[in-house]
From TrEMBL:
It comes from Streptomyces lasalocidi. Transmembrane segments: none annotated. Coiled coil: none annotated. It holds the Pfam family Glyoxalase_6. This is VOC family protein.
Length: 239
């Protein structure tokens, strides 16, 4: 049994508006598939979608998860920043300092993301969404490697990263200490290759925790990874 990464999902006050921002920024198309919210095709070799789900949660701090967008040239980096600002994004200070070569922005609902300078070797070939950068422990990196069947491509000084065997976006974890739970964040939506309940049991055995005996709004099972980050297991083909 295993799961594939179906979507990277944003908590959103206005899912349609937030989806329009990311679609325009990254030239993404809508995905016409059943989902409890709005879906965009990521256009990435990793094969996932971007999801935007309604959430009443309030954002109380910096997200634990954020996108690192790649640039092909200095002009491309500047153009991405300018486009984000025109679409309703804003500059954001997360302590990066005035000499940082990357640019930190926030989307219209305050979700932080970075526009990385050109020539970043670690993100080379990963696509426009080069990384989902996560605040998290080494143990949670190991958990997600097993959960997704994605090999570790970095494991050093408590920092880890995984990547789909097909390539595309890397998922990275920066090591301790963990930031507080921000309330509203990004989440992983998993689609089991087989039956959902069997996959839930496998994930629990790997170190996940069941959050509620009830299902999520669209029938998804809500779990938390070893660092306490909420994720969802959707229905599988055998359900």
């Amino acid at each position: 049994m295993s799961s594939r990464l179906f979507a990277l999902s944003f908590d959103a006050r206005e899912p349609e508006r937030l989806a329009r921002f990311w679609a325009a920024l990254l030239d993404l198309e809508a995905a016409d598939e059943p989902y409890d919210g709005v879906l965009l095709r990521s256009g990435n070799d990793a094969g996932y979608r971007l999801g935007f789900r309604p959430s009443p949660a309030r954002k109380t701090g910096q997200n634990r998860l954020h996108f690192d967008l790649t640039s092909s040239s200095p002009d491309d980096q500047r153009e991405t920043v300018a486009r984000a600002l025109e679409l309703g994004g804003r500059h954001c200070d997360v302590g990066q300092g005035p000499d940082a070569s990357h640019v930190v922005l926030a989307d219209p609902e305050g979700n932080e993301f970075c526009v990385i300078e050109p020539g970043n070797a670690f993100l080379a070939g990963c696509g426009r969404i080069g990384a989902l950068a996560c605040d998290g422990s080494q143990a949670v990196g190991y958990f997600w490697s097993e959960a997704l069947g994605w090999p570790l491509v970095w494991d050093q000084d408590e920092e880890t990263a995984v990547q789909s065997p097909a390539g595309g976006t890397k998922i990275t974890w920066g090591g301790p200490p963990l930031m507080p739970d921000p309330g509203r964040d990004l989440h992983l939506d998993l689609a089991p290759d087989g039956g959902r309940e069997a996959e839930v049991e496998r994930l629990l055995a790997l170190g996940a925790k069941r959050l509620d005996t009830a299902h999520g709004g669209d029938g998804a099972v809500l779990l938390a990874d070893p660092d306490g980050n909420v994720f969802r297991v959707l229905a599988g083909p055998r359900d």
